[in-house]
Model the fold of this input.
Amino acid sequence: MTETQATHGKTAVVVIPTYNEADSICPLVEALLATAKSSAPQWSVRVLVVDGDSPDGTAQAVRAAMQHQPALDLMVETKKAGIGAAYLLGFERAMRQHAADVVVEFDGDFQHPPETLPLMLEAIDEGCDYVLGSRAIPGGGYPAGWSLYRHLMSRGGGFVARLLLFFPWRPFFRITDPTTGLKATRVRGVLDRIDFARIRSKGFGYKLELLYHLVQQGARVKEIPLRFQPRRAGESKITNQTPGEILRTVLWLRLFGKRYMARGV
Ligand SMILES: Nc1nc2c(ncn2[C@@H]2O[C@H](COP(=O)(O)OP(=O)(O)OP(=O)(O)O)[C@@H](O)[C@H]2O)c(=O)[nH]1
Ligand SMILES: [Mg+2]
Done:
């Protein structure tokens, strides 16, 4: 075994979906790779950007960065198709092409602090399968200056999602922030047991679907604190339809989720 193989035995692919994130994406990629190199040297970390054909030049900026950054990869969708669709595309490529041992879900707007990456990989090293960044446990939190509406949507919506997905079972008490977007998932025996064709939501609801199925499947879950930052640049892709889409997804999962996956996986 070469030295590189010995020190970089495991591969983590950080998948970042982007739509009009040209101002943040390159500094974010640099920060992620730098923190991984210094604080998780036992991991080979790659970053895969899945761009929804952004008109602001996000993909061009990534392509330019790829010239000097071999750990960076890019997929460009034919058109913006939802955050869930982008992640599933990215997971497929991470698993098939990059032989990922772990895939990480990470926002492209610096709301997830890059320093959380080594902490998530450390939890995977300890034996966890599914590491979730939680804004609702000590050490985590929401951005200062968020409107009452955003707090209500995030905290109230999160509570309703927990209730519908898990009450009165044990996961209800363990999953404190079900709508979080920061996650690290072990591939072998965990993510590779999910049939992506059966994930129904192409938008933000995919988060709840994957959470539900992975928890049902018995993934060993750990939450780490997530201090969710204000957006650095660009605009939110959350619309007035997003809360309704998430609510429909969790209701459907509560009613049919268990039987649906049991038939297919
Ligand atoms: N490729 C692709 N990326 C998307 C799509 N929707 C959202 N994203 C990206 O997914 C990440 C999360 O989306 P955000 O709009 O930041 O969602 P959020 O963080 O919950 O909301 P804010 O706090 O308002 O930013 C960002 O990097 C977006 O650019 C999409 O349809 N396609
Ligand atoms: Mg965001």
Remarks:
- Residues 3-264 form a domain with the Spore Coat Polysaccharide Biosynthesis Protein SpsA; Chain A fold (CATH 3.90.550.10).
